[in-house]
Description:
Oligomer: single chain
Shape: globular
Mean pLDDT: 93
Amino acid sequence: MRKELLKKFNIDNNFYVDDIFVFTNERNKYSFLLNKNGCSMIVDAELLNRIMSKNIKENLKFKMLQHGLATLKSPKISISKEKNNNIYFIIDVTKKCNFDCLYCFRNLDDNRVITNDRLQDICSYILNIIKKRKLKNVTVQVWGGEPLLAIDKLEFVYNFFKDTDIMLKIDIETNGSLITDSIAKRLFDMKVNVGVSLDGTKKHQDIQRRLVNDKSSNEMVRKGIKNLKKYYGDNVSGITVVTKYNYKDITDIINYFTNELKISSMKFNIVKDNPNANEDRIGLSLEEVRFFANKLFDVVELYNLLGIKFSEGNIQMRISNLNERSNNSYCISNGCKGGINLLSIDINGDIYPCEMMDYKNVKIGSIYKDGKLSSNYDLISQINKSKKNNIYFQKKINSECKSCPWQYYCQGGCTSRIIYSNGKMKYDEVECEFNKIIYERIIEQTLKNIRLGE
């Protein structure tokens, strides 16, 4: 695949084209065009030649305007976070957990569970924000610890919003070990979106996700998934944390998910090395990231060719980014939206920009003001104040970002990973390497699958 950069130009001072990254399949001569605002378009050799030679007639002008690759006035390109009227709320309902995961940074001696009074305040606070800002698509994730150790709190949230006119989605991410048939039915009846955290085969699970009594969790999780599938069918997916212990075995892991567990969708997230974790040096080197990214894409691509149903969440979201400019992910569609469209509320009512961050120096504020529930406008004020002096909102710096095709989607990567690095990273080097591999391979596959004459 050939790559080149078409420098910005204008025609007759009323048709402006900013820099466009051009990816061309040398074999079938189709090209994928991508600009700095994440807008894309696929053209054949004839259309590309017209664009490159600036011989752009009215029909082509219209197509380029329609796809966001041109404007009728001098463009002021901005790749800052776009306004989004939706918020993803995360409520930390319990610190308790029956697992002792290798990468977990929580204190297992902390067995606190949120009180109903506090949860009532948090739900009221969220409801107030939804109404004042007229939010349409709102999701609340009930978080832990292991959230099913406090399933009554999940039911509390469900019942609170059930009698309102709010269309609320509820998510949980569970280790899967506590899902009996009755719990699976309760979750299904409440229309809860359930994700299961599962790090691979029994071998990988025993290394990374053992029970607090140091016994294997594998069989309990298998039974939990089986119970879930009875009600959710194929809508069972989850997250696999990728570490130095399982990154080489992606083929075996996906085979296990599809053949043994009958799971057809998972999301493979590369671990964030955390100095407070049980083992804080389990992340991947950049070379290992490249190996993992290519291997992951190879396996998913092979499965698709063989007609085996399996999708990987990070790849799918990046496909949506390229083809639809979806902005659906709060992490990887338009940079980190933590503290803006994603808010985490702990059991004290304190507000943080991300569920992976509970450091006091990244705290945004509280649901309370002078002992009473604060308003939506207090939240906006707290966020704006945080942007000025909160380390979480500091600008990510990398000179190469300006010339990177994926900058619109990435914008420096995961803020939590950067902060965990204790100053070693100015931007998320791991996501940067992953993006370089995955985005190019998506474009390459897309162009390869286009047939002449279509």
